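Re: zinc ion structure - here you go.
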Amino acid sequence: MADVPTLTLHELAEGVWVWLQPGGESGVSNAGVIADADGLTVIDTLMVRSQWEPFAAAVHDLDRPVKRVVLTHAHIDHVGGTTAFRNAMVLGSPVTSALLDQAMPVEAYKNFMPAFAEGFDELAVVGTRPVSHLVDAAAQLTPRVELLPAQGHTDGDLMVLVADVDVLFAGDLCFFGVTPLAFQGDPATWADTLEVVGELAATIVPGHGPVGATADVDALREYLRHCVAGSIPAGPWDSWLERAERDPINIEKAEMLRHGDDGMPPSMIRAIGLA
Ligand SMILES: [Zn+2]
C-alpha cells in the first residue's frame, strides 16, 4: 500500500488530493479533492466537526471555488461535513438522497460510535445538506471527473474515476486494512462489483484505510466471497481491524439475503444498541 501521510491534504497526482484518516475504523473515513479548470470537486466530507473542519480548511487553502461535492453513499462518516461546503452542488445516488432526507438516527450513531458522542450531538443541530443533483447512471461530471454508480456496500454506491491520472475514489466499496461492513449491503453483489473495481485504475482510494491497488481489491473480494460461503479461513484479512465485530454481521447479512431477507442483521442491531 502507498505510503501517504494522514490528516493532511496530500497531492496524490496532478490536481488530485486525498485526506486520509489513520486507522479507518467505524467513523474514521477518507475524503478527496479533484481540480478542474472551473474549480474543485470534493469527494465525501467525513463525519463530525473535529474531522471535517481541518479538512475543509485545507480545501479552502487551495484557494479555488468548491463547485461540487460528490457523496459516495449516505453513511454518516461520509456525509457529516456537507455543510462545510455551502455553495457547492451536492451529487449522490437516489438511495443516498432518500436517506439524507430522513431524520438523523443520532442515538444509534452514539451507541455504535461512542467515541464521537459529543460530535453527534453537535451534528444533530447542524444537520447535513440534501442531495441537489441525483446521479442514476454513469456520467462525465467534468472533463476530469467520471461518476460510476455501483452496488454492494449499499444499494446506492457511487465511485469517482479520474482517468487522466489513473485514480479511483471507490468510497466504501473498498476498505483496505480494515474489515468491510455490509450491514446495509450485499456481500455477494459487493464481491461481483469488485471484479470490475480492481481493473478501473492503478491507484485506488478506499473509503477507509490507506491508498491501495488491485491486489488490495482482490483480497477484499476474496474475504467477501468467504462471508457468502459462511466461514472465513486464514488469509491476508487476518491483520485487518474490526474482524471480531464485523465477521458475524457480514456472514449473517449474506445468509439473510440468501433467504430473501434484506433486513438489518441482528448482530448489527445489537451493535447499534437497539436490542
Ligand atoms: Zn459506508
